[in-house]
Design goal:
The structure holds two protein chains of two kinds. By secondary structure, chain A is mainly alpha-helical. Chain A has one domain: MetI-like (MetI-like fold). Helix content of chain A is 77%, strand content 0%. The termini of chain A are far apart. By secondary structure, chain B is an alpha/beta fold. Chain B folds into two domains: 145 residues, Rossmann fold; 68 residues, no CATH class. Helices cover 35% and strands 26% of the residues of chain B. In chain B, the strands form two sheets. Chain B has a six-stranded mixed β-sheet, sandwiched between helices. Chain B has a four-stranded antiparallel β-sheet with strand order 2-1-4-5, covered by helices on one side. Chain B is globular. The chains are: A mainly alpha, B alpha/beta. Chains A and B meet through α6 and α7 of A and α2, β6 and α3 of B.
């Protein structure tokens, strides 16, 4: 118990003293997660909205597939992307493996189905009168679509936040594609795994506290968004 | 014949394979108040959706202002600029009352002070002057219905379609809406109101189009309303 409290004190001192290694890992995590979320949003939001607004023969199957992809183990995803980015892989010539870009590729693939699913749910939960109301007031298809997006904007923001929350806390993709290289691809989660196994519990704890603060802030933000989304 | 008019011939509309509306012939003239009466499921809303160009009939032809409706995207966009439909439970967009009322007029290219003036005038017509800054989702049911009506009026439409505008509204809103309908007709607007109230046509001195199970069973001009021996009119006579 004494050693735990001592570790907490050490962890807090690392955070407040601005330990360079701690903040390097925080920066790598936040920047890769932010880029991944942006890329995943560019694909996920339109995909989710398109599925929600259209009817096509394999719609049910597509929704089931999208749901299943949300449960994709990060290590398996990391493994698949590793195969693509490794020297013998289809994208090996780009030399991305063990760089932050590789983490971004993997995390984008991880977040896309999550964001698409949230966007799909928002469209499904939207009032069915939005589009007919806009159309009957003389709005064109694009204006009506813009109005729908405006009405469900909180749901869309929740989708983006959920995607960010997922990628910032994952470890499998970052470990397999980033390689946990110090000062370069070491993220908070991979650093926690490594430092704890080395016995540097306080260092891992410091990163754990920062990660927890970020995750809690995201969840609090998401809760506010969802409350705001209620009619 | 003045103003825009509809001509429906052999129109049949289906929902999930089931016929919801079957009209052999129906003509609607500008500057006329029409009440589409009938019980729930009689096809009133389907008829309004067809007239609003929101639902393409499975059979038959619809002409608007003498032109045949082709139901293609470009023509629909143009036709919908002339018509507005106020739904039974109107949807108000997030934001202020002014934002809602301005929506249709803005979509028609009205901007700046002209838009502000239209918003002000429309709200005045429905008895909601000074409501511009209020939040649209904090209004009572009757107020929301009147804001939806103001939003339709701000579009300056040639045709206004109202789906059960008087259902579940208070006495004040009912009086305002009824007076407004008559005013619009005097201005040359074609007004079509659906109602399950069998007495509305008589009360508003309107042409009454009665539907039953999707079929037109009565089409009487205002002066003929009293003479029609439908069960609904007999009930009204007793009252």
């Amino acid at each position: 118990m004494g050693s735990l409290s001592q570790s907490v004190v050490t962890a807090l001192s690392l955070i407040f003293a601005g330990d360079r290694e701690v903040y390097a890992a925080v920066w790598t995590s936040v920047s890769t997660a932010a880029w991944s979320t942006v890329i995943a949003s560019l694909f996920g939001l339109p995909i989710g909205m398109a599925i929600g607004l259209s009817n096509f023969p394999l719609k049910r199957f597509t929704v089931i597939l999208l749901n299943s992809l949300m449960a994709m183990p990060t290590v398996v995803l990391g493994l698949l992307v590793f195969g693509l980015l490794s020297r013998q892989g289809m994208l090996g010539s780009f030399g991305l493996l063990f760089t932050p870009k590789a983490i971004i590729v993997g995390q984008s693939l991880l977040a896309t189905p999550i964001i698409a699913n949230y966007a799909l749910s928002s469209v499904r939960a939207a009032d069915i009168r939005i589009l007919p109301t806009a159309l009957t007031l003389g709005a064109g298809p694009m204006q009506s679509f813009t109005q729908l997006t405006n009405e469900i904007r909180f749901g869309m923001m929740a989708a983006v936040i959920a995607g960010f929350g997922r990628v910032i806390s994952e470890v499998g993709v970052a470990m397999m594609l980033g390689g946990n290289i110090r000062w370069y691809t070491r993220t908070m989660t991979t650093a926690i795994a490594l430092e704890t196994s080395k016995g540097e519990f306080a260092f891992g704890l410091a990163l754990g506290i920062v990660l927890m603060l970020i995750s809690f802030s995201i969840n609090i933000g998401l809760s506010f968004m969802q409350e705001e989304h209620q009619p | 014949m003045r103003g825009p008019f509809y001509h429906l011939a052999g129109v049949e509309a289906r929902y999930h394979g089931k016929a919801a509306l079957m009209v052999d012939e129906l003509a609607l003239r500008g500057g006329q108040l029409n009440v589409v009466a009938g019980l729930n499921g009689s096809g009133k809303s389907t008829l309004l959706n067809v007239l609003a160009f929101l639902m393409q009939p499975t059979q038959g032809t619809v002409k608007f202002s003498g032109k045949r409706v082709r139901w293609d995207r470009a023509q629909l966009r143009e036709l919908r600029q002339s018509v507005t439909l106020v739904h039974q439970e109107p949807f108000l967009f997030r934001g202020s009352v002014a934002l809602n009322v301005a929506y249709g007029a803005k979509a028609r290219g009205v901007v700046g002070s002209a838009l502000q003036e239209r918003v002000r005038e429309s709200l005045e017509l429905v008895g909601l002057s000074g409501f511009e800054a209020r939040s649209a989702n904090r209004l009572s049911g009757g107020e929301a219905r009147r804001v939806a009506l103001a939003r339709a009026l701000a579009c300056n439409p040639e045709v206004i379609l109202l789906d059960e505008p008087l259902a579940y509204v208070d006495e004040l809103s009912t009086r305002i809406i009824e007076t407004l309908l008559v005013t619009l007709v005097d201005r040359g607007v074609l007004v079509v109101v659906s109602s399950h109230d069998p007495t509305l046509g008589l009360r508003l001195n309107a042409r009454t189009i009665r539907l039953r199970q999707g079929r037109l069973i009565q089409d009487s001009e205002p002066q003929e309303n009293y003479a029609v021996k439908s069960p609904e009119n007999r009930a009204y006579a007793i009252l």
